[in-house]
Amino acid sequence: MASCLMDRANEIIPIFVSEPGNVEAPHIQKLISKLNLQRHLEGGYFVETDRDPLRVPNPFRADDSHTANLSSDGAQDDSTRSASTTIYYLLTPENPTGVFHRNKARTMHTLHQGRGRYVIIHADQVEHGHEDRVETFVVGHDVDKGERLQWLVEGGKYKASFLLPDSEGGDTSEGLLISEVIKNLHRA
Fold first, then answer.
1. Which residues pair with 119 in a beta bridge?
2. Smallest Cα–Cα separation from 5: which of 107, 91, 123?
3. How confident is the model over 20-31, as a mean pLDDT?
């Protein structure tokens, strides 16, 4: 069930693989319950913990889209958004992958527990005739080995996350718990 992501010939291979019908370990179920986490469409679990009441002009307004009348927080007017939102996000051995997705806004991530590998595709920085730049790094508490406690992903990047064992070379994980702060402010 558990191992680590491995780089072989520039491949990232997730080894924590969920089996159909498996349930989370009791201590992970307790964490999910205590934090009121819900399944996330992109993988893992999440809960919104804060939504700034300050409304700002929506820098991502899509007047010509079929969702033009919906804002990011479900309001019928997309001309404004909350200045920021904050979430908890959890990957577990039974839900070990956050699939590739793109956030429109700048997102600051902060580690609470566990280890994981993040992959960022900088598709917005492609120059004609060059491949997309791909960045990968480990988040964890071993700062001496280059693991990150905080990381910033600018809007427009594609990102994915993969659960790693709690210790390098190990084969178990208590889960990767982070916070994300999404800033919806327009940058000139």
1. 136, 160
2. 91
3. 92
Neighbours of 43 (CB within 10 A): 22
The first and second tokens of residue 11, run together, are 């491949």
Q: Can you read off the two tokens belonging to residue 148?
A: 């990150």
Contact 169, 140 (CB under 8 A): no
User: How many Cβ atoms from other residues are within 10 Å of residue 109's Cβ?
Assistant: 19
Identify which has the larger pLDDT, 59 or 131: 59
CA angle 94, 139, 10 (to 5 degrees): 85
45 against 126, higher pLDDT: 45
Q: What's the pLDDT tens digit per position in 28-62? A: 999 999 999 999 999 999 999 999 999 988 877 76
pLDDT in tens, 57-116: 887 776 444 333 434 555 556 788 888 999 999 999 999 999 999 988 999 999 999 999
Residues 142, 165 contacting (CB under 8 angstroms): no
